[in-house]
């Protein structure tokens, strides 16, 4: 074997050793990055599971949270058990609903102060309303049976104003405060001239963002404030032509029962959803 051949082999051997060393270093670097990623994901996953359980506590049930963030209960159970991790869209949506920054939600465990702040927002719901809405209800005067009144609801700084209008004139004007319970919102209002009135409604679903509309119960004095009256009120973020949509409004505002005797009257989520869908169809 000549020196030239031996030299070439030696050089190839050295090159192979360098290539192997480079590949080994690269592989080691990849493994280090993988280990770092795995450790980071484990921390993120543990924080997410902790924070998710806290949100379930705030909402009351796992079913309620699943509904609010738009996933199935089964998938939420997998999130909670660490068997699945949400998509970036779901994660962003959760943080948007609860007004939490994503990096804080996945990197840190929610503090007692964080949870208190979230709970206050959940219990207020005042910021979901636009400034004003139109509302529709049957006239309380028997002489105008089946006539539908129009009104305006105005929200500002935790206060509410309810105006019953006729054309460009305000017939009655009530104002008052907003009160919240776990699932119900009530608006207590009064007027020196027109007495006291109440509105009661299901707490809107904040998955819909700003409140579009739905049904409420209206407690309004009738016949010159001499008789109490309870009826449905349709709230809408758009004005509805009462003549064109009279039959639709009448169906939404009428109490129906297949029973001969009625011991109580309730507004169901189904009725509220029908009203919401009707308003959405007009947008």
TrEMBL record:
Pfam families from the UniProt entry: HTH_3
Domain called HTH cro/C1-type: residue spans: 52-105
| Stated name of the protein | Transcriptional regulator
Organism from which the protein derives: Clostridium zeae
